[in-house]
Amino acid sequence: MHANDNERIGLFQAGGLSSLAVGVWLTELPAPTTHYVADIGQADRSTIDELISSLRAFGAEVVLVDLRSTMAAVASDLLRCRASHDGGYWNTTGAARFVLVSELAPLMRADGCTMFAHGCVGGGNDQRRFARYGTEVAPELSIVEPWTDPQALERFPHREAMLKAVIEHKLSLDPGSSDVRSTDANLAGISHESAELEDLETPVTKLDPRWSRWPGQTAADPETVTVTFRDGLVADVNGSGSEPLEWMTEANEIGARHGIWLCDVVERRIIGTVCRGIYEAPGLELLDRAWTRLLQASLDVASRDLYDRLSVVLGAAMYEGRWLEPAACAARDAVDRLVGDISGTVTLSVHRGLAQVEGMEVAGNVVPQQTRFGSGGNRWSKVTTV
Q: Which residue ranges does the record assign to the Arginosuccinate synthase C-terminal domain (predicted)?
Protein backbone atom coordinates (compact mmCIF):
# COMPACT_ATOMS: atom_id res chain seq x y z
CA MET A 1 0.00 0.00 0.00
CA HIS A 2 1.19 3.51 -0.77
CA ALA A 3 -0.02 6.69 0.90
CA ASN A 4 1.24 10.25 1.00
CA ASP A 5 0.73 13.21 3.29
CA ASN A 6 -2.38 14.23 1.35
CA GLU A 7 -4.06 10.86 1.80
CA ARG A 8 -5.23 10.41 5.37
CA ILE A 9 -6.60 7.01 6.38
CA GLY A 10 -9.49 6.55 8.79
CA LEU A 11 -8.99 3.32 10.74
CA PHE A 12 -11.91 1.53 12.38
CA GLN A 13 -10.21 0.84 15.70
CA ALA A 14 -11.93 -1.69 17.95
CA GLY A 15 -9.04 -2.52 20.27
CA GLY A 16 -8.89 -6.12 19.12
CA LEU A 17 -5.58 -7.72 18.23
CA SER A 18 -6.03 -7.41 14.49
CA SER A 19 -7.08 -3.76 14.37
CA LEU A 20 -4.31 -2.74 16.80
CA ALA A 21 -1.78 -4.55 14.60
CA VAL A 22 -3.11 -2.66 11.57
CA GLY A 23 -2.58 0.58 13.48
CA VAL A 24 1.04 -0.39 14.15
CA TRP A 25 1.58 -1.31 10.49
CA LEU A 26 0.14 1.96 9.19
CA THR A 27 2.35 3.93 11.58
CA GLU A 28 5.44 2.05 10.43
CA LEU A 29 4.80 2.65 6.71
CA PRO A 30 4.29 5.56 7.56
CA ALA A 31 0.75 6.46 6.52
CA PRO A 32 -1.15 9.40 8.09
CA THR A 33 -3.90 7.71 10.09
CA THR A 34 -6.73 8.68 12.43
CA HIS A 35 -8.07 5.93 14.70
CA TYR A 36 -11.86 6.09 15.03
CA VAL A 37 -13.01 4.33 18.20
CA ALA A 38 -16.77 3.78 18.43
CA ASP A 39 -18.54 2.98 21.67
CA ILE A 40 -21.19 0.52 20.50
CA GLY A 41 -21.63 -1.10 23.92
CA GLN A 42 -18.76 -3.55 23.51
CA ALA A 43 -17.26 -2.74 26.91
CA ASP A 44 -17.58 -0.30 29.78
CA ARG A 45 -16.30 3.20 29.21
CA SER A 46 -13.23 2.71 31.42
CA THR A 47 -12.01 -0.07 29.11
CA ILE A 48 -12.56 2.14 26.07
CA ASP A 49 -10.78 5.05 27.79
CA GLU A 50 -7.78 2.80 28.47
CA LEU A 51 -7.63 1.92 24.78
CA ILE A 52 -7.73 5.57 23.77
CA SER A 53 -5.06 6.54 26.31
CA SER A 54 -2.73 3.80 25.07
CA LEU A 55 -3.22 4.83 21.44
CA ARG A 56 -2.46 8.47 22.21
CA ALA A 57 0.63 7.45 24.18
CA PHE A 58 1.65 5.52 21.06
CA GLY A 59 1.34 8.77 19.13
CA ALA A 60 -1.91 8.06 17.33
CA GLU A 61 -4.61 10.59 16.52
CA VAL A 62 -7.86 9.27 18.01
CA VAL A 63 -11.53 10.19 17.64
CA LEU A 64 -14.13 8.69 20.01
CA VAL A 65 -17.77 8.49 18.88
CA ASP A 66 -20.64 7.28 21.07
CA LEU A 67 -22.83 5.07 18.87
CA ARG A 68 -24.63 3.10 21.58
CA SER A 69 -28.04 4.60 20.79
CA THR A 70 -27.62 3.85 17.09
CA MET A 71 -26.52 0.30 17.88
CA ALA A 72 -29.55 -0.14 20.12
CA ALA A 73 -31.88 1.13 17.40
CA VAL A 74 -30.48 -1.41 14.93
CA ALA A 75 -30.86 -4.15 17.55
CA SER A 76 -34.50 -3.10 17.80
CA ASP A 77 -34.83 -3.55 14.03
CA LEU A 78 -33.30 -7.03 14.27
CA LEU A 79 -35.90 -8.03 16.86
CA ARG A 80 -38.86 -6.42 15.06
CA CYS A 81 -37.96 -8.30 11.87
CA ARG A 82 -36.57 -11.39 13.65
CA ALA A 83 -33.65 -10.96 11.25
CA SER A 84 -31.52 -13.88 12.39
CA HIS A 85 -29.31 -16.16 10.34
CA ASP A 86 -28.56 -19.90 10.31
CA GLY A 87 -29.70 -21.54 13.52
CA GLY A 88 -31.01 -18.30 15.00
CA TYR A 89 -27.75 -16.33 15.08
CA TRP A 90 -28.79 -12.73 15.68
CA ASN A 91 -26.46 -11.08 13.13
CA THR A 92 -24.95 -8.87 15.80
CA THR A 93 -21.57 -8.68 14.05
CA GLY A 94 -23.14 -7.81 10.71
CA ALA A 95 -25.29 -5.21 12.45
CA ALA A 96 -22.20 -3.65 14.03
CA ARG A 97 -20.52 -3.33 10.63
CA PHE A 98 -23.60 -1.56 9.30
CA VAL A 99 -23.58 0.89 12.22
CA LEU A 100 -19.83 1.53 12.06
CA VAL A 101 -19.63 2.24 8.35
CA SER A 102 -22.90 4.16 8.17
CA GLU A 103 -21.93 6.46 11.04
CA LEU A 104 -18.14 6.69 10.86
CA ALA A 105 -17.39 6.70 7.12
CA PRO A 106 -19.17 10.06 6.56
CA LEU A 107 -17.32 11.44 9.60
CA MET A 108 -13.99 10.23 8.21
CA ARG A 109 -14.77 11.93 4.93
CA ALA A 110 -15.71 15.18 6.69
CA ASP A 111 -12.45 15.02 8.64
CA GLY A 112 -10.45 14.89 5.41
CA CYS A 113 -9.78 11.17 5.11
CA THR A 114 -9.55 9.80 1.58
CA MET A 115 -9.38 6.13 2.60
CA PHE A 116 -10.63 3.89 5.36
CA ALA A 117 -9.06 0.74 6.78
CA HIS A 118 -10.22 -2.11 8.98
CA GLY A 119 -8.60 -5.11 10.59
CA CYS A 120 -10.94 -7.83 9.34
CA VAL A 121 -9.64 -11.11 7.96
CA GLY A 122 -8.85 -11.10 4.24
CA GLY A 123 -11.54 -12.92 2.25
CA GLY A 124 -13.94 -13.17 5.20
CA ASN A 125 -17.50 -12.03 5.79
CA ASP A 126 -16.56 -8.72 7.35
CA GLN A 127 -14.29 -7.69 4.50
CA ARG A 128 -17.30 -7.90 2.21
CA ARG A 129 -19.56 -6.08 4.67
CA PHE A 130 -17.17 -3.16 5.00
CA ALA A 131 -16.77 -2.99 1.24
CA ARG A 132 -20.49 -3.10 0.48
CA TYR A 133 -21.50 -0.52 3.06
CA GLY A 134 -18.54 1.67 2.15
CA THR A 135 -19.70 1.70 -1.45
CA GLU A 136 -23.22 2.62 -0.33
CA VAL A 137 -22.49 5.42 2.15
CA ALA A 138 -19.06 6.80 1.16
CA PRO A 139 -18.16 5.66 -2.37
CA GLU A 140 -15.46 8.33 -2.69
CA LEU A 141 -13.40 6.70 0.11
CA SER A 142 -10.93 4.07 -1.04
CA ILE A 143 -10.78 0.94 1.11
CA VAL A 144 -7.54 -0.40 2.61
CA GLU A 145 -7.79 -4.14 3.36
CA PRO A 146 -4.52 -4.88 5.17
CA TRP A 147 -4.81 -8.65 5.34
CA THR A 148 -4.90 -8.84 1.56
CA ASP A 149 -1.75 -6.67 1.31
CA PRO A 150 1.58 -8.56 0.94
CA GLN A 151 3.39 -5.90 3.01
CA ALA A 152 1.02 -6.29 5.95
CA LEU A 153 1.14 -10.08 5.74
CA GLU A 154 4.94 -10.01 5.73
CA ARG A 155 4.98 -7.75 8.78
CA PHE A 156 2.38 -9.80 10.63
CA PRO A 157 2.30 -13.38 9.30
CA HIS A 158 0.41 -14.69 12.34
CA ARG A 159 -1.34 -13.57 15.50
CA GLU A 160 1.71 -14.26 17.66
CA ALA A 161 3.56 -11.51 15.77
CA MET A 162 0.59 -9.18 16.23
CA LEU A 163 0.51 -9.79 19.98
CA LYS A 164 4.26 -9.16 20.28
CA ALA A 165 3.88 -5.75 18.61
CA VAL A 166 0.85 -4.80 20.71
CA ILE A 167 2.71 -5.63 23.92
CA GLU A 168 5.86 -3.87 22.72
CA HIS A 169 3.95 -0.65 22.08
CA LYS A 170 1.91 -0.98 25.31
CA LEU A 171 -1.40 -0.83 23.51
CA SER A 172 -4.49 -1.72 25.52
CA LEU A 173 -5.88 -4.97 24.13
CA ASP A 174 -9.57 -5.79 24.34
CA PRO A 175 -10.07 -8.36 27.16
CA GLY A 176 -11.69 -10.83 24.78
CA SER A 177 -8.79 -10.85 22.33
CA SER A 178 -5.46 -12.70 22.35
CA ASP A 179 -3.21 -14.61 19.99
CA VAL A 180 -5.48 -17.68 20.24
CA ARG A 181 -8.99 -16.22 20.47
CA SER A 182 -11.09 -13.18 19.70
CA THR A 183 -14.50 -11.78 20.48
CA ASP A 184 -16.51 -9.21 18.56
CA ALA A 185 -18.83 -7.41 20.94
CA ASN A 186 -21.51 -4.75 20.79
CA LEU A 187 -24.69 -3.86 22.63
CA ALA A 188 -26.68 -6.46 20.67
CA GLY A 189 -24.38 -9.42 21.30
CA ILE A 190 -20.97 -11.06 21.09
CA SER A 191 -19.33 -13.54 18.75
CA HIS A 192 -16.60 -15.89 19.98
CA GLU A 193 -13.86 -17.27 17.75
CA SER A 194 -10.83 -19.50 18.27
CA ALA A 195 -9.21 -22.48 16.59
CA GLU A 196 -10.44 -24.67 19.42
CA LEU A 197 -14.06 -23.51 19.12
CA GLU A 198 -14.04 -23.90 15.33
CA ASP A 199 -13.44 -27.63 15.85
CA LEU A 200 -16.88 -29.25 15.78
CA GLU A 201 -15.74 -31.82 18.35
CA THR A 202 -15.05 -29.11 20.95
CA PRO A 203 -17.89 -28.94 23.50
CA VAL A 204 -19.51 -25.55 23.88
CA THR A 205 -18.64 -25.64 27.59
CA LYS A 206 -15.05 -24.82 26.60
CA LEU A 207 -16.32 -21.30 25.93
CA ASP A 208 -15.62 -18.54 28.42
CA PRO A 209 -18.68 -16.23 28.19
CA ARG A 210 -17.88 -12.53 28.13
CA TRP A 211 -21.06 -11.19 29.73
CA SER A 212 -23.22 -14.12 30.69
CA ARG A 213 -23.51 -16.91 33.21
CA TRP A 214 -24.07 -20.54 32.44
CA PRO A 215 -27.60 -21.63 33.53
CA GLY A 216 -26.22 -23.78 36.36
CA GLN A 217 -24.45 -20.74 37.83
CA THR A 218 -27.55 -18.56 38.04
CA ALA A 219 -29.84 -17.73 40.95
CA ALA A 220 -32.02 -20.48 42.38
CA ASP A 221 -35.18 -18.36 42.26
CA PRO A 222 -36.91 -17.24 39.05
CA GLU A 223 -37.38 -13.59 38.12
CA THR A 224 -40.50 -12.06 36.62
CA VAL A 225 -39.91 -9.88 33.58
CA THR A 226 -42.57 -7.70 31.96
CA VAL A 227 -42.04 -6.63 28.35
CA THR A 228 -44.35 -4.05 26.80
CA PHE A 229 -44.67 -3.57 23.04
CA ARG A 230 -46.26 -0.60 21.31
CA ASP A 231 -46.83 -0.39 17.56
CA GLY A 232 -44.58 -3.37 16.92
CA LEU A 233 -41.67 -2.04 18.99
CA VAL A 234 -40.41 -2.68 22.50
CA ALA A 235 -41.70 0.14 24.72
CA ASP A 236 -40.49 -1.03 28.14
CA VAL A 237 -38.65 -3.83 29.95
CA ASN A 238 -39.30 -3.92 33.69
CA GLY A 239 -39.65 -0.15 33.90
CA SER A 240 -36.65 0.65 31.71
CA GLY A 241 -38.40 3.26 29.59
CA SER A 242 -38.96 3.32 25.86
CA GLU A 243 -35.51 4.29 24.56
CA PRO A 244 -33.85 1.30 22.83
CA LEU A 245 -30.57 1.90 24.69
CA GLU A 246 -32.40 1.69 28.01
CA TRP A 247 -34.46 -1.41 27.37
CA MET A 248 -31.67 -3.20 25.50
CA THR A 249 -29.31 -2.64 28.44
CA GLU A 250 -31.93 -3.91 30.88
CA ALA A 251 -32.73 -6.97 28.78
CA ASN A 252 -29.03 -7.80 28.41
CA GLU A 253 -28.50 -7.68 32.15
CA ILE A 254 -31.51 -9.91 32.86
CA GLY A 255 -30.71 -12.45 30.16
CA ALA A 256 -27.02 -12.60 31.11
CA ARG A 257 -27.59 -13.18 34.80
CA HIS A 258 -30.16 -15.90 34.15
CA GLY A 259 -28.19 -17.81 31.50
CA ILE A 260 -30.39 -16.93 28.51
CA TRP A 261 -27.86 -16.12 25.82
CA LEU A 262 -26.26 -19.05 24.01
CA CYS A 263 -26.43 -19.81 20.29
CA ASP A 264 -24.07 -22.52 19.01
CA VAL A 265 -24.41 -22.99 15.24
CA VAL A 266 -22.66 -24.14 12.09
CA GLU A 267 -23.42 -21.21 9.82
CA ARG A 268 -23.26 -20.82 6.06
CA ARG A 269 -20.94 -17.93 5.29
CA ILE A 270 -20.95 -15.35 2.50
CA ILE A 271 -17.85 -16.91 0.95
CA GLY A 272 -19.53 -20.29 0.50
CA THR A 273 -17.98 -22.14 3.44
CA VAL A 274 -19.49 -23.28 6.72
CA CYS A 275 -18.00 -22.39 10.07
CA ARG A 276 -18.95 -22.95 13.67
CA GLY A 277 -20.06 -19.83 15.47
CA ILE A 278 -20.83 -19.33 19.16
CA TYR A 279 -22.73 -16.23 20.17
CA GLU A 280 -23.97 -14.37 23.22
CA ALA A 281 -27.11 -12.30 22.73
CA PRO A 282 -28.83 -12.29 26.14
CA GLY A 283 -31.11 -9.32 25.51
CA LEU A 284 -32.32 -10.36 22.08
CA GLU A 285 -32.77 -13.99 23.17
CA LEU A 286 -34.89 -12.86 26.12
CA LEU A 287 -36.99 -10.37 24.18
CA ASP A 288 -37.57 -12.78 21.32
CA ARG A 289 -39.48 -15.09 23.68
CA ALA A 290 -41.95 -12.30 24.37
CA TRP A 291 -42.11 -10.97 20.80
CA THR A 292 -42.74 -14.43 19.35
CA ARG A 293 -45.68 -15.02 21.68
CA LEU A 294 -47.20 -11.67 20.77
CA LEU A 295 -46.84 -12.44 17.06
CA GLN A 296 -48.62 -15.77 17.58
CA ALA A 297 -51.64 -13.99 19.00
CA SER A 298 -51.65 -11.08 16.56
CA LEU A 299 -50.98 -12.37 13.03
CA ASP A 300 -53.24 -14.57 10.96
CA VAL A 301 -51.87 -17.56 9.07
CA ALA A 302 -51.11 -15.77 5.81
CA SER A 303 -49.59 -12.76 7.55
CA ARG A 304 -47.37 -14.90 9.77
CA ASP A 305 -46.22 -16.96 6.80
CA LEU A 306 -45.26 -13.81 4.92
CA TYR A 307 -43.58 -12.36 8.01
CA ASP A 308 -41.45 -15.49 8.45
CA ARG A 309 -40.36 -15.40 4.81
CA LEU A 310 -39.46 -11.73 5.11
CA SER A 311 -37.45 -12.53 8.24
CA VAL A 312 -35.33 -14.96 6.27
CA VAL A 313 -34.74 -12.33 3.57
CA LEU A 314 -33.75 -9.73 6.16
CA GLY A 315 -31.59 -12.13 8.12
CA ALA A 316 -29.61 -12.86 4.98
CA ALA A 317 -29.46 -9.16 4.10
CA MET A 318 -27.94 -8.22 7.44
CA TYR A 319 -25.57 -11.17 7.38
CA GLU A 320 -24.33 -10.39 3.87
CA GLY A 321 -24.04 -6.62 4.29
CA ARG A 322 -27.05 -5.83 2.09
CA TRP A 323 -29.21 -4.00 4.65
CA LEU A 324 -29.37 -0.85 2.52
CA GLU A 325 -30.18 -2.54 -0.77
CA PRO A 326 -33.67 -2.19 -2.34
CA ALA A 327 -34.82 -5.73 -1.53
CA ALA A 328 -34.03 -5.28 2.16
CA CYS A 329 -35.67 -1.86 2.27
CA ALA A 330 -38.82 -3.26 0.64
CA ALA A 331 -38.86 -6.21 3.05
CA ARG A 332 -38.61 -3.88 6.05
CA ASP A 333 -41.46 -1.78 4.69
CA ALA A 334 -43.57 -4.93 4.41
CA VAL A 335 -42.71 -5.97 7.98
CA ASP A 336 -43.74 -2.52 9.19
CA ARG A 337 -47.10 -3.01 7.45
CA LEU A 338 -47.59 -6.40 9.11
CA VAL A 339 -46.58 -5.59 12.69
CA GLY A 340 -46.98 -1.82 12.93
CA ASP A 341 -50.19 -1.97 14.96
CA ILE A 342 -49.22 -4.84 17.28
CA SER A 343 -49.19 -3.82 20.94
CA GLY A 344 -49.37 -5.70 24.20
CA THR A 345 -47.60 -6.85 27.33
CA VAL A 346 -45.95 -10.23 27.89
CA THR A 347 -44.91 -11.48 31.31
CA LEU A 348 -42.02 -13.93 31.44
CA SER A 349 -40.66 -16.13 34.20
CA VAL A 350 -36.90 -16.27 33.75
CA HIS A 351 -34.92 -19.04 35.40
CA ARG A 352 -31.70 -20.93 34.66
CA GLY A 353 -31.61 -20.61 30.92
CA LEU A 354 -35.38 -20.66 30.38
CA ALA A 355 -37.81 -17.83 29.71
CA GLN A 356 -41.38 -19.07 29.99
CA VAL A 357 -44.47 -17.02 29.23
CA GLU A 358 -46.56 -16.51 32.35
CA GLY A 359 -49.26 -14.37 30.79
CA MET A 360 -50.03 -11.71 28.22
CA GLU A 361 -52.37 -8.91 27.32
CA VAL A 362 -52.85 -8.00 23.68
CA ALA A 363 -54.14 -4.68 22.37
CA GLY A 364 -55.17 -3.68 18.88
CA ASN A 365 -56.12 -6.04 16.06
CA VAL A 366 -55.64 -9.68 17.00
CA VAL A 367 -56.65 -13.01 15.52
CA PRO A 368 -59.96 -14.28 17.01
CA GLN A 369 -59.43 -17.04 19.57
CA GLN A 370 -61.59 -20.14 19.67
CA THR A 371 -62.09 -22.33 22.72
CA ARG A 372 -63.54 -25.81 22.98
CA PHE A 373 -63.39 -26.92 26.58
CA GLY A 374 -65.13 -23.79 27.79
CA SER A 375 -68.33 -25.17 26.26
CA GLY A 376 -68.09 -28.68 27.64
CA GLY A 377 -65.49 -30.10 25.28
CA ASN A 378 -67.89 -31.25 22.56
CA ARG A 379 -68.39 -28.07 20.56
CA TRP A 380 -66.68 -24.75 19.92
CA SER A 381 -67.63 -21.88 22.17
CA LYS A 382 -68.15 -18.37 20.93
CA VAL A 383 -65.13 -16.78 19.30
CA THR A 384 -63.37 -14.36 21.63
CA THR A 385 -60.35 -12.13 21.43
CA VAL A 386 -57.17 -12.69 23.38
A: 182-361
